[in-house]
Design goal:
This protein has about 180 residues and is α/β, with parallel strands linked by helices. The protein has eight helices and five strands, in the order βαβαααβαβααβα. The protein binds shikimate-3-phosphate.
Length: about 180
């Protein structure tokens, strides 16, 4: 079973991911960490030295390679992962995508204190951060909403999500068991 958590920066993918993996008895992986390990560079440095376009190519390659080599995992993807190339289609075809939905104001509150390691927002002041989140969401939500499942990113009781994923997995004709 391949589970992909998708959603905006700060939606809780890296926090919920390990809990979900534990409940489903799967390993947890973070796509950003995989990219960093393969590039021998932090995401921040990839953006700084090579630019966003190079990052998106690395992100695509890392996703494709990981999926080709692994069948069972929970993965936290980056906030932009489902919005570039056919990454979303790839994830929807080979696994179950879960959109962690969090409203703009709550994302703003969280990201105000978590900007440093995130090159897309690290240099923004509060007003610019708020505008960036709203602009990004206008575009990105259309992608996020194509996920197989949706989950309220503020909920902490993951029991119902575990059930939803198990049901989705057992009714998936492409998954023989
Ligand atoms: C990005 C989100 C980041 C990381 C990169 C770009 C984005 O991941 O992949 O900085 O485009 O939203 P998180 O969502 O884990 O912060």
């Amino acid at each position: 079973m391949r589970i992909f958590l998708i959603g905006y920066m700060g939606s809780g993918k890296s926090t919920l991911g390990p809990e979900l993996a534990k409940a489903l008895r799967l390993h947890f992986h973070d796509l950003d960490k995989i990219i960093e390990a393969e590039a021998w560079m932090s995401i921040k440095d990839i953006f700084r030295k090579q630019g966003e376009e190079a990052f998106r190519i690395k992100e695509r390659e890392a996703l494709q390679k990981f999926v080709a080599g692994h069948d069972d995992f929970v993965m936290a993807t980056g906030g932009g992962t489902p919005c570039f190339f056919d990454n979303l289609e790839l994830m929807n075809t080979c696994g179950t995508t879960v959109y962690l939905e969090v409203e703009a104001l709550e994302l703003f509150r969280r990201l105000q204190h978590q900007k440093a390691e995130r090159p897309m927002i690290s240099r923004l002041g509060d007003a610019a951060l708020w505008n960036r989140i709203r602009e990004h969401l206008l575009v990105r939500t259309a992608h996020y909403e194509q996920a197989a499942l949706r989950w309220d990113g503020k909920r902490r009781d993951i029991g119902p999500l575990v059930e939803m994923i198990q049901t989705a997995g057992s009714t998936d004709a492409s998954n023989p068991g």
